[in-house]
Amino acid sequence: MKKRLAITALIIFIFVMTAIFEVTGCKNDTIAPETTADTTTPQATSLPETAAASSATVSAETEETEQPEIIAEKITLVGAEMTGAIPSFMCINKKNLVTIEVKNTSDFTWRTEIPNLVRFGYHFYGQDVSFTEYGNTLRTVLPHDVKPGETATVNVEINDVVNKGNYVIQIDMVQEANDDPANNFWFSSKGVAMVEGHSYFGACQQ
After folding, report:
1. Alpha-helical runs (H) found in the chain
2. Which residues face 103 on adjacent strands?
3. How far apart, in whole angstroms, are the C-alpha atoms of residue 42 and residue 21?
C-alpha cells in the first residue's frame, strides 16, 4: 500500500513539474518575439545620418554661394599704350566702332568688374557746332581682365554725337565706380596719351 502511494505521489510530482516547465516555456516564447520585434534601434541610428547629410548639403551650398571678396589693388603707376585712328567720317544715326589696340603698362590689373573697373570712354568737342561732352559718354567694356604687360583689342563704340558737324574725338580710358574717389580717374589725367582725331558726323543710310 505504501509503495503504491509513493508511486502515485511520484507521478503527481512529475505531472506538476511538467506543467510548470510548459508554463514557463510559454512565457519565454511570448517575451522573446516582443524583444526582437523592437525596431526603434534602426530608426534611432538613421536619424543622425539624415541630419548629418542635410547639414553637409547646407554646408556645401554655403561654400558655393560664398565668394571670396576681391580687394582693390594698390595703384602706384597708371599707364597704357593705345594705337588706333579716328575715322574722318562717322554717323549721327548709327553706331560707330573704332578699333583700338591697348597694352597695360600700369602696375595693376584692369578688370571688367569692380574693383579696378577699367573701361573705354571718349570726349568730343564741336568745331563748327556748339556741342561738347567730356565725361558723360558711352562706356565700352574690356573683352577680359588685362594684367600688366598684356594687350587687348577693343572696339570702342561712339554714338553720343547726334548733330551734324565737325568734331574733335578723343578716345580715353577710365577707372571708375570705386568707393575711394582717388581710384576714379581718366587715364589722360595721369599723363596717358589718348587716341585723337577730327571727324565729320553726318547722316548715314539705314
Report:
1. 2-36, 40-65
2. 81, 151
3. 35
